[in-house]
């Protein structure tokens, strides 16, 4: 919580973004769609679809950490499973290092698997209870046919040390460890093959609050040490605040805002982001009063039948006629801050998307 | 074990006062990392933990001991008979009262020579017959269980792992088998094969037919359990983790899933054995299983009911043998289930 909450820093957030944006993205996602068909009856007739991810675009730049936040059920995990190709997209494209991997077969994906790894949410479900720690962390080597220098055992023990465990844990079983330790084991496994991209799906949300920071810090340290690129998924903005370079906010299968960490926290443009930010606890009681807590009313609409136009309109206090008829595109406003809203907050008057007089009236 | 269960998704709520136990449990193993560790702890596998848990369950241990004894008795049944000089099929007409055809003397003709008495009409030694029946019973029960476990495991794993049409097909097949009038079928098949088939006749034929009939029609129970377990296991994140490292079907099946299925398979096999023992007894009782004069528990019961008013002791011998065997296997199976999967015990 080191960031200041000053308002009026709308300008001056461009530095840093342009330089890194020039580099070729490590991962390029365009129009990504994943619909889960809903079938009925004996003949499996399709009667609808869960639009878990419904057309999202983003890049992940080498060396950065992209945070992805959103409420439960907005499609974050589905997105994570798509970009690691644990699941196959219904539409759109995914390019990793310039190579289209959208519909690659499992066999063709195999070499790419070395470079893209995933850290899972559930520290109890992600480690096979019948395997030893040594076996678990050593599995990537076996599966990819890699023989590390000095042998698998030595390398596994080195990895265990790297994530803050003892090499003597090699012969132990997962159930003997705490949640935090298990998550470290999962991290060691993910890093075994020296991946380029690591996708972490709510890596700490199942852990004790006191352990969360330790694990996040470990991930942060390892990023510097190994030059990793992260996509970290979280369900609120507090966890990823310190580690993300850029943050994508998802709502009901769409990215509604994508911006630099600083720009997003200091001047959120999408009403949904603003609401999420207001829910982040502020430790300083003096400052707590300065920010009104925005309580979102109503439930998240069903991804089977999302609202027309802007998907957030059923809960948005700024919604107007245009919001229900026209879907707001994700467009870059000042300083590359992307937002999908007809009446963005903290935005210059001129970019009200043709509806003057409404921008900045909320909050 | 207290720290195993933790609510998923601590959504940033302030729950400090009640987190103390959780935090303490967390802190202790984390402290191990700081080099506080003094004694070298060997990793205990889930199997070893299950064994420790099982050992504490006195009832299950008793069941296990009885089961082991029963298996020993059955395996050594023939040698013991010849060592004791017993013959299950030799009649002793001198022990039978020719007027009533009942054994002479009290308690069904109990004597030092025939500690459990003799049967009416023929005067055959009951100890020998119940010993002889034990191996028949157990070999049929084990054989049939093995057969249904083999079929059930393979089809259950395939259905659960590949899902989709394969699963639909196998699941319907299980429904068909479960809806099958098994008893009628068993009677029909046993009756039609009495003469001899597959180059077998007599006792080997009867045993094979029983194993086939019981085993082949019981597999869907095993199949359903294995299928359900596989379905839930394949959704676990460690399967995704393996796939994310490039693992293919066979690796996931044999290295990730199967080790987790061994426990349930052992438990439900143990629980299937007693029901198969009862099944064998029932079929033999109905006269379509093991054929006389070969001794079997079901066959003995069949004979005994004709005399139950005048010679109740005869019925008690095979009845108790079946009862003790079935009970022991059930206790063992329940104990194994509790030990291997403590969540299902309550
Ligand atoms: N395999 C599936 N089949 C059908 N629907 C699915 C499947 N996986 C996810 N969904 C649906 O897609 C939507 C998005 O799910 P997803 O798990 O991606 O959300 P999430 O943002 O990760 O939520 P959480 O914070 O709870 O993890 C949900 O409505 C979910 O029910
Ligand atoms: S487009 Fe309209 S409904 Fe959607 S977030 Fe913006 S103001 Fe609200
Ligand atoms: Mg999720």
Low-confidence stretches of chain A: 1-20, 350-363
User: How many beta-strand runs of chain B?
Assistant: 0
- Widest sheet, order of strands of chain A: 6-7-8-3-9-10-12-11
Query: CATH superfamily membership of chain B, which one?
Result: MetI-like
Structural class of chain B: mainly alpha
Determine the structural class of chain A based on helices, strands and strand pairing: alpha/beta
Major sheet description of chain A? 8 strands, mixed
Flag low-confidence runs of chain B: 1-40
Could you name the CATH homologous superfamily of the domain at 2-52 and 63-115 and 195-254 in chain A? P-loop containing nucleotide triphosphate hydrolases
Radius of gyration of chain B: 26 Å
Q: Kindly provide the radius of gyration of chain A, computed on alpha-carbon positions and rounded to a whole number of angstroms.
A: 21 Å
**Strand/helix succession of chain A:** HEEEHEEHEHHHEHEHEEHHHHEE
Oligomer: heterodimer
Provide the helix percentage of chain B. 55-70%
Distance between the amino and carboxyl termini of chain B: 16 Å
List how many beta strands of chain A DSSP finds: 12
Order of helices and strands of chain B: HHHHHHHHHHHH
Query: Strand percentage of chain B, roughly?
Result: under 5%
């Amino acid at each position: 919580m080191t960031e200041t909450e000053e308002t009026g820093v709308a300008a001056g957030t461009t530095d840093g973004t342009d330089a890194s944006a020039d580099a070729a993205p490590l991962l390029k996602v365009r129009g990504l769609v994943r619909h889960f068909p809903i079938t009925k009856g004996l003949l499996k007739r399709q009667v609808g679809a869960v639009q878990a991810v419904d057309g999202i675009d983003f890049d992940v730049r080498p060396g950065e950490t992209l945070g992805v936040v959103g409420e439960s059920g907005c499609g974050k995990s589905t997105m994570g499973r798509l970009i690691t190709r644990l699941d196959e997209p219904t539409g759109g494209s995914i390019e990793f290092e310039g190579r289209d991997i959208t519909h690659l077969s499992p066999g063709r994906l195999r070499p790419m698997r070395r470079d893209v790894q995933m850290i899972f949410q559930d520290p109890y479900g992600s480690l096979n209870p019948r395997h030893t720690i040594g076996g678990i962390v050593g599995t990537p080597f076996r599966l990819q046919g890699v023989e590390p220098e000095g042998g698998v055992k030595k390398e596994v023990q080195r990895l265990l040390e790297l994530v803050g465990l003892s090499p003597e844990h090699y012969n132990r079983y997962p159930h003997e460890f705490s949640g935090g330790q298990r998550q470290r084991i999962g991290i060691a496994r993910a890093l075994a093959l020296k991946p380029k991209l690591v996708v972490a799906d709510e890596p700490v949300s199942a852990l004790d609050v006191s352990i969360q920071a330790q694990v996040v810090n470990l991930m942060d340290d390892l990023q510097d040490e190994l030059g990793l690129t992260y996509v970290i998924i979280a369900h609120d903005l507090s966890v990823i605040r310190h580690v993300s370079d850029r943050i994508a906010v998802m709502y009901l299968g769409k990215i509604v805002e994508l911006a630099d960490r600083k720009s997003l926290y200091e001047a959120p443009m999408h009403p949904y982001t603003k609401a999420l930010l207001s829910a982040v606890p502020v430790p300083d009681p003096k400052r707590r009063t300065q920010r009104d807590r925005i309580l979102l009313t109503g439930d998240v609409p069903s991804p089977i039948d999302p609202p027309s136009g802007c998907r957030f309109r059923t809960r948005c206090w700024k919604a107007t006629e245009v919001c229900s008829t026209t879907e707001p595109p994700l467009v870059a406003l000042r300083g590359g801050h992307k937002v999908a809203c007809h009446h963005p907050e903290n935005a210059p008057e001129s970019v009200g998307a043709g509806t003057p007089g409404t921008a900045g009236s909320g909050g | 074990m207290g720290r195993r269960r933790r609510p998923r998704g601590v959504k940033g709520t302030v729950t400090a006062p009640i987190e103390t136990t959780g935090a303490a449990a967390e802190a202790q193993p984390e402290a191990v990392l700081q080099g506080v560790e003094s004694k070298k702890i060997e990793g205990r596998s889930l199997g070893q933990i299950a064994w420790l848990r099982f050992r504490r369950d006195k009832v299950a241990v008793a069941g296990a001991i009885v089961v082991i004894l029963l298996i020993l008795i059955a395996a050594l049944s023939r040698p013991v008979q010849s060592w004791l000089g017993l013959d299950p099929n030799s009649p002793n007409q001198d022990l039978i009262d020719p007027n009533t055809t009942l054994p002479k003397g009290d308690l069904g003709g109990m004597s030092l020579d025939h500690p459990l008495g003799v049967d009416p009409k023929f005067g055959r030694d009951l100890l020998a017959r119940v010993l002889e029946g034990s191996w028949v019973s157990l070999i049929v029960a084990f054989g049939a269980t093995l057969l249904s476990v083999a079929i059930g495991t393979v089809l259950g794993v395939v259905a659960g792992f590949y899902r989709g049409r394969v699963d639909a097909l196998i699941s319907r097949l299980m429904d068909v088998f479960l809806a099958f009038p098994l008893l009628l079928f068993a009677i029909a098949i046993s009756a039609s094969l009495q003469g001899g088939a597959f180059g077998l006749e007599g006792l080997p034929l009867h045993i094979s037919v029983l194993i086939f009939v019981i085993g082949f029609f019981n597999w869907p129970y095993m199949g359903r359990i294995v299928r359900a377990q596989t379905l839930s296991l394949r959704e676990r994140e460690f399967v995704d983790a393996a796939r994310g490292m490039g693992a293919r079907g066979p690796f996931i099946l044999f290295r990730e899933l199967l080790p987790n299925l061994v426990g349930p398979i052992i438990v439900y096999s143990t629980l299937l054995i007693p029901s198969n023992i009862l099944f064998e007894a029932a079929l033999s009782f109905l006269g379509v299983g093991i054929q006389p004069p070969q001794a079997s528990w079901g066959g003995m019961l069949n004979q005994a009911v004709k005399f139950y008013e005048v010679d109740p002791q005869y019925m008690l011998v095979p009845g108790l043998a079946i009862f003790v065997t079935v009970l022991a296997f059930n206790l063992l199976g329940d104990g194994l289930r509790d030990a291997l999967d403590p969540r299902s015990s309550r």
